[in-house]
Amino acid sequence: MPKHKPIKFEALDQGVVKQINKIISENKTAKSILNATLAIMATGGIITLGALAPGLLTEINKISRRKRRRGMEKYREIWKNFNLLKKKGDLEFIKEKDDCLFYRFSEKGKGKVRKFIIDELKISAPKEWDNKWRLIIFDIPEKKRSGRVAFRKKLNDMGFYQCQKSAWIHPFPCLYEIEFIKDVFNLKPFVKIFLVDEMTDGKTLYHFRNLLKQVSTK
């Protein structure tokens, strides 16, 4: 494989980085080659053989030729995706410094990263439930109808229960996830999150009965 200069990426904001790291660690479907490439770029990683797979250069002679070939194929695919994203205008060249090429996401590319996060976003079950409920209430104007539809769909995808037309509920912590979705769809003024100490609605309790069996309570 031809030699190349390392590619260094300007990290996105810490909220995005935190969520990407969480998604990659928890969700196997997020570990595709393309999504792995996006994660490396968004978190300020470096595309080099060693950086992509720490210790690989040391261990490479210990593995079979077949496994070694698969590793190199993955490496080539990541470079292929980098070049594809660059060609599509998702990445912008910043500068060359210390024998390293620096890139950052364009506004178009940032949108692609946000879509990646939204698609993979989910509510994680805590080790111990605090016995509180998260109530999401929104009043989104008609001029933001597309955002309203997307917001409802994502709430449903994440397992929220629709207790009223514009009221959804979930037992597990989800503040960051909701705030992130509000920001992506530009809905911050229209969505409120409430913490409910007690749930008396039988339909809601029945809906989450199996989910709550999976966690211990305080």
UniProtKB/TrEMBL annotation:
InterPro entries on file: PaaX-like_central (IPR048846)
Q: Name one GO biological process term.
A: DNA-templated transcription
Which of UniProt's keywords are assigned here?
Membrane, Transmembrane, Transmembrane helix
Protein name per the record: Transcriptional repressor PaaX-like central Cas2-like domain-containing protein
One Pfam family name from the record? PaaX_M
**Bilayer-spanning residue ranges:** 38-60
Question: Which part of the chain is the Transcriptional repressor PaaX-like central Cas2-like domain?
Answer: 127-198
Superkingdom: Bacteria
PANTHER family in UniProt: PHENYLACETIC ACID REGULATOR-RELATED TRANSCRIPTIONAL REPRESSOR (PTHR30319), TRANSCRIPTIONAL REPRESSOR PAAX (PTHR30319:SF1)
Per the UniProt record, the lineage of the source organism begins with: Bacteria, Candidatus Terryibacteriota
Output the Gene3D superfamilies linked to this UniProt entry.
Answer: 3.30.70.2650
